[in-house]
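Weekly modeling sync, notes
Attendees: S.R. (lead), two postdocs, one rotation student

Agenda item 3: backlog of single-chain predictions. S.R. asked that every request posted to the team notebook include the full sequence so nobody has to chase files. The rotation student volunteered to paste the first one in as an example of the format we agreed on. Action items at the bottom.

Example entry:
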Amino acid sequence: MEVKKPENIDEYIGGFPNEIQEILEKIRETIQKAAPEAKEKISYSMPAFDQNGIVVYFAGYKNHIGLYALPSGHDEFKEELSKYKSGKGSVQFPLKDPIPYDLITKIVKFRVKENLKAKKK
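Predicted structure, as returned to the notebook:
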């Protein structure tokens, strides 16, 4: 399940087993719906969405999905994210549990607004 420097998100997702590909694709679609103007890219060898700066990164692992909404996205949703393992700017959604797509939507919308506000300064 080792992923070697993908050129695009399709290539990144394609490097995982089918069941993880399905989850990664649904996360991608969730982010696209929440930030329709964001551009897809690969950054730090992970899928990322950019709109006035990075909105969010996500990554697949053997036992979890990582979401990286920079510290502010995690700080804003600290209570809702408290049941997940997290670090500064990262959270892990275990594959054995349902992925919180609604929460991902909220985080992405928050980050888009935050990036827009920072751009106007």
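Discussion: group reviewed the output briefly. The CA atoms of residues 73 and 114 lie 9 Å apart.
Action items: rotation student to repeat for the remaining queue; S.R. to check formatting next week.
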